[in-house]
């Protein structure tokens, strides 16, 4: 019976942490996993997304059910590395925790999925069905990788999907969408002693942003699980001299959407409102820089039930089942699926540690998730 030793499990995670897959460097993670799969006779396929970015897909078994398992290979920047207690790219164990950029979000989950699949294959344990491993690129920057997988049909025949993002205590079955805009207001520069010789780019963009802020954030519609849509203007740049009328103002906005007030409706509202200002002489341009729809499923499935049991058994936790404001690759992977589709986000780590300095995953949780994932796959394919 093939079972990776604890030492091997830690070494493989440490190897992946050492790969600085901060934006555009996920290909090294993909190649590492591809070689690892090949060592155990599992063929995998690099799926190019852009010239430099790739996904990796590997599969074992055949026929239905098809279980989709997914994680992203990119990590966010380590920020100021001197703020870390140990090198963010050298996995370090302290007090039962494994520290390093990506230990939590989400290379531990990714290794759990990959090694579980290798063991199932090596031991010929999978009696029915297919397990499809989908490692994505660019999750932290708009989900380009998961969009590609959806477009190329990798989700068409999938019956269950789980994303191994950090959430060991709570099964997430629905989450908000995320929508980014860049708004540019163009004016005409002039000396501030004669502002009427120019056109101030700041004034219309302020009114525009406040009008939308009021409209969106006061909208009464609410999702039964996720609550209301929220909008925040997060960046505003304009002007460069106190006595010059600015010719350009640029704002960036993030909107967290719900199915009841979705991305398309928000985009239309931003465009219509710009049109209204432009008819009064402003020049406001609207650019959508990212659009990920919300995910809304019922959370009622044999997968969720079994996961609750396994969480109790291996982590000794009463697993909660909830919605979340954060987004995952499921925004793209679940395009076109209905609300009864069995989806969950469930993996080792701690949601609150994502993107932080001194990011860590609990070692006991990381190790327990190998058993959880194996028993989950075997339970769904009996
Ligand atoms: Zn993540």
Describe the fold and architecture.
The protein has helices at 6-18, 26-39, 103-122, 144-151, 202-217, 263-279, 302-315, 330-333, 363-380; strands at 44-48, 54-62, 66-72, 92-94, 97-99, 129-136, 160-163, 170-175, 177-186, 190-191, 222-223, 227-228, 230-238, 244-245, 248-257, 283-292, 295-296, 320-324, 343-345, 360-362. A hairpin with a 3-residue loop joins strand 11 (222-223) and strand 12. It starts with 5 loop residues before the first helix and ends with a helix. The chain has a six-stranded mixed β-sheet with strand order 1-2-6-3-7-19, sandwiched between helices. The protein has a four-stranded antiparallel β-sheet with strand order 13-15-9-16, covered by helices on one side. The chain is elongated. The protein folds into two domains: 6-176 and 294-380, Zn peptidases (Aminopeptidase, 3-Layer(aba) Sandwich), CATH 3.40.630.10; 177-292, Alpha-Beta Plaits. It has 382 residues and is α+β, with helices and mostly antiparallel strands. Zinc ion binds next to helix 3.
Q: What labels would you give this structure?
A:
binds zinc ion, Aminopeptidase, Peptidase_M20A, 382 residues, alpha+beta, six-stranded mixed β-sheet, metal ion binding, hydrolase, metal-binding, four-stranded antiparallel β-sheet
